[in-house]
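Narrative summary of target 7.
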Amino acid sequence: MRVYLDNCSFNRPFDDQAQPRIRLEAEAKLCIQDGVQAGALELVWSYVLDFENAASPFEERRIAIERWKSRATLDVEESDELLQTAGQLASLGLRAKDALHVACAIAAGADCFVTTDDRILSRNSQVHGIEIVDPTALVRKLNP
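Modeled conformation, tokenized:
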């Protein structure tokens, strides 16, 4: 299975773990990482992840997330087709960067786009060509 994790998913283990939802999503994201390391999951990376991660003011997070790029089997670069797809996704109400992330996942042929962002998750039924899930849903899907 090919997966694309957006920046908020990569950052989830660094978030305040006091809330049960955040703690569960962080644990699930770590399970997904284990699947990538074991070769059970293919990780997709993109120029949008590079851009967004480079803007992080937290050096520890930035370095930890950047290390995952070397584990990716695909690294998506910008193209006219990708930008067109992102424009269509933005017309559904996704913010520009979010639309670019989802467009990158679609361009890579990812099976799942993993996010913890409720605005993106709420668009799952409107987006065609990929399933949008939170980390816990993906772990449940992998371990029925």
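The chain has a mean pLDDT of 96.
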